[in-house]
Specification:
It is a single chain. This protein is mostly helical. The protein is built from 3 helices and 2 strands. The protein has a two-stranded antiparallel ribbon with strand order 1-2.
């Protein structure tokens, strides 16, 4: 099961962007990454469109997601 609280690249702050999981120190929801990837964007596209998100954060989120799928 995916538990975002175990991923250091993200944070959830009550009242900030409706309490969504965000890339740390940004207002960009993690969900935006997956929605854009599903729509055919590349990671480079996403980073260009959301310049406050760092590549290391995206890589950490994708690695965290991959680890959670290994146990499924």
């Amino acid at each position: 099961m995916l538990t975002w609280s175990d991923c250091p690249a993200v944070e959830r702050i009550p009242g900030k962007v409706s309490g969504a999981w965000l890339f740390k120190d940004t207002r960009v929801p993690v969900k935006a990454l997956f929605e854009n990837l599903e729509d055919g964007a590349s990671v480079n596209d996403f980073l260009e469109w959301f310049p406050d998100v760092r590549r290391e954060q995206v890589e950490a989120v994708l690695a965290h997601t991959e680890r959670s799928l290994e146990g499924a």
